[in-house]
Amino acid sequence: MVRVTYGAPRHQKKVRWFKRARGFRGGRSKLWRTVRESVVRAWAYSYRDRRQKKRQFRRLWIVRINAAARMRGMTYSQFIAGMNRAEIGLNRKQLSELAIHDPKAFDALVEEAKSVLS
Hints:
This is Large ribosomal subunit protein bL20. This protein is mostly helical. It has a single domain (8-117), classed as c-terminal domain of poly(a) binding protein, CATH 1.10.1900.20. It has 5 helices and no strands. The protein has helices spanning 7-20, 32-71, 76-85, 92-101, 103-117. The N and C termini lie far apart (91 Å).
C-alpha cells in the first residue's frame, strides 16, 4: 500500500498562514506555532475592534463638542438638550466637524440651543 504524504498541500497551507502574519515582529512571523497563535489572536482583536472603533469615534466627537460648547459658555449636556428641544437633527459627527471647521455655524447652533433652554 502506498504511503500518503501531504507535502505540497501542507506547504501551501503554511504559506497562506505565513502570508497573513507578514509584518508581525520576530517569531510571530517566522515560527509556525507562533504564527498560528498570533494570526488567530489578531483575528480576534480585529473582530472586537471593528465594534469598538464606532464607540471610540463617538467618544471623540462628544469630547470635541463638549470642548467647543464650554468655550461658548455651555456644557455638553445642556447643548444637546437644547438641540433636542429645538429639533435640530444633527448627529454628533456633524456637530464635531462644525465645531472644528465652521465655528460660526457652531456659534449659531449654540445660540439657538441657549434660546430654547431659557
